[in-house]
User: Fold this.
Amino acid sequence: MRREGREGGAARSRTRYDDEAGTWYSLDNAGIIMPATSDAVMTNLFRLSATLDEELDPRLLDQALAAVAGRFPYFVVELRRGLFWHYLVPHEAPLRIESDSTYPMQDYDVNRRGRCLFRVRAAGRRIACEFHHSITDGTGGMRFLKNLVAEYCRLRWSAAGGDDDLYRLDERPAAEEYEDAYGRHYRVDYPPPADLRRAYRPPSDPLPRFVYRVTCGIVPLAPALAKAKEYGASLTELLASVYIDALQELWLASSSRPRRSQLSLSIPVNMRKLYPSRTNRNFSLLTFITQDMRLGHREFAEIVKRAHYQLRFEIDARTMGSQLSRNVSASKLFLFRLLPLPIKGRVLKVLHSSFGESLYSGSISNIGPVSLPEPIATHVERLDFVPSPTHGKTNVGVLSWNGAIYITFGSLGRSREVERLFFTRLRKLGLPVRVECNL
Assistant:
């Protein structure tokens, strides 16, 4: 098979175009499926927020948003429908800070014409950014939030500092910031990954429409890292094992044997750690921790050991590259490209269900430790990451800030059993947990 050279990769990664109608952007490989699977409830939004040490000044926050949005023009966009594909055009209306609500990331359908693909909300001391997954992932979203917080702190307290994620707002963005990194790095000669089985989901009745339960557990970072080291695992591996242990308990407690025996937890992988890229668009893929319950109950130490080796085995450039190759190659199939957008949307929904949603019981996404330079950091009391709402599953967003881990569950279901078992297991491990919930 022919291998693409560097020039071919650069051409495939281009997303911005200018023609007689003006500027427009193509969606990256991860983003193309999102419009077809988004509605006002399963919005495909995720949320990153910062809580400062005093009440926000709305006027200054408006100024900060205007300055930062101008530096991230590839986020200030809205969806348009073409004959064969969705595409993105600049959102021309002024951005406004919205009042925050009890239930985040709800009642916001990005398929409505004129709807920007991210919004900024505020309440009291909290600044929250909600991003649609068609434009970015957690890494790109966090860069935006950090720049917004830094600019607000500069306006409010003349606080300034620099790190790699803080941009000069008067600079024009480099093309690599909005490249389709999937297109640049995929290999046509890689085989597809092995298929997975459909996964068990804990049963739960749905919550009322537009109600999204958010449960956050706050754990001291140092003892959690020490406990992970005790088990010979990373923090992500330990937390994922706690989730698998909760799923195991629910599966075994079922009154009748569940039809599906596969426990499967998806873990987003930041591909920038495996392939060079500074993109602020999507560049993550999923890997999985699995456990077949037909083989019986496993002790917690065994679950951690298996999670450790599964992730270490799966997360390398070639193994993840096979998934990257499959995803990009599928979108380039000639017959698929010829399908009109309404038919393509239905095909994408089926593919998303068959090769995505049905393959995992839940997800845990760890952004990792977040840093800000002094003196900006002194004004930030906490950071939070709320995962996207998904029907039938409870998802987890994790980040570390200022000596604490913020572990946030999001669920559209009434059952709280996953959360209860998860935080109970952390306490049994000797870790203190403070739990908050919006419902």
